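User: Structure with magnesium ion, C-alpha cells only please.
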Amino acid sequence: MKKGNKDKGGIFQKLRRGLAKTQGLLVGGVDDLLRPGRGMDEALYEELEEVLIVADVGVAATQRLIEGVRREVKKKGVSDAHAVLPLLRHEVLEILQPYEAPLAIEGAGANPFVVMVIGVNGTGKTTTIGKLAHRFTSQGKKVLVAAADTFRAAAIEQLEIWSDRAGADFVRHGDGADPSAVAFDALKAAQARKCHLLFIDTAGRLHTKENLMEELKKVKRIIGRELPGAPHEILLVLDATTGQNAVVQAQTFHQSLEVTGIALTKLDGTAKGGIIVAIAQELGIPLRFVGVGEGIEDLQDFRAEVFVDALFSQTT
Ligand SMILES: Nc1nc2c(ncn2[C@@H]2O[C@H](COP(=O)(O)OP(=O)(O)OP(=O)(O)O)[C@@H](O)[C@H]2O)c(=O)[nH]1
Ligand SMILES: [Mg+2]
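Assistant:
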C-alpha cells in the first residue's frame, strides 16, 4: 500500500472494507495459487484464468491479464509463483487507469450542469443522486433534483427524502406524469434559481422494453433543445452484484443514449467487484464513481490506483 493512501484514512479504509468480499474471492484465490516456492508452469496460468473468470473479471480482461502476466514473467525471468501477484496487480491497474475520470463540473461553463441518471431498476440511481446532491451542496453548490421517474409514487417520495437530506431543491409532478415535462420544468427552475447543478432521476424499468429507451431519449432531446450541450453527463448506474449482466445492460444503454460516465454501486457486500475490470476493458466508458454503502457519504470518486491498492492491500 502506498503511504499516501494510508493517509487518506477513512475513505481508503471504507473502500477496503467494501471490497473485502471481492478481495477474498479474487486476491484470496490468486494468493492460494501463487504460493511461495511454487514454480511457473502451464497449469498455473490455467488456474489463474479460472480464478479471474469466477471473480467476474470477464473473458476479454482475463485473456489480457494472463497475456500481460506471461509477458512480464518472461521479461523479468520470474521463476517463483509468488512474484506473480505484483505483476497481476500492475496489469489490473493498466486496464483500469485509462477510465479514471472523475466528474468535472468546473470549467464546463454550464448553467446549470445537467446530469441525467439512468440505469435498470434497483441499481441505485436514486441513492446515487442523493449522495451526489449531498456532496455538491456540501461544497456550497446550489443543486436541484428532478423526479423524472414518475413510474411509481414511492420513487418520487424516496427522491424527495434524499433531496431534503442533501439540502437540494426539488421539482416533481404527479405519479405517471410525462418524464420529459418534469425534466423541462426542472431545467427552467434550475435556470431561474441559478442552480449550479441539476440531477434528473429516471425510471429503471427493464432495458429490454423498447419504450424505456424511447422515453429516456426524449428526456435527453428536450433537455438538449432547451439548453444546448445538455445533458452534460449521462451517468449510467450499474449494480456490481449483478456481475456480467452489468456489462450487457451498459451496452444496451450506451447504444441508445451515449453514456458519458458510470457509477458502479454496491461494491460493498458483493464478491463480484471484479466486474469493474470487465467494465473498463469492454465498455470504454469513464468510471466516475463507486458506491460502497447505503449512507449519504458512501460514494467515492473512482481512483484506479487507490482501488487497486485497496483490493490488493492485505496481500502485497
Ligand atoms: N450496499 C449498498 N446498497 C446500495 C448502494 N447504492 C444503492 N444501494 C441500495 O440499493 C437499493 C436500490 O437503490 P435505489 O437508489 O432505490 O435504486 P434505483 O436505481 O433508484 O431503483 P428504481 O427507482 O427502482 O429504479 C436501495 O436499498 C439502496 O440503499 C451501495 O453502494 N451499496
Ligand atoms: Mg429510483
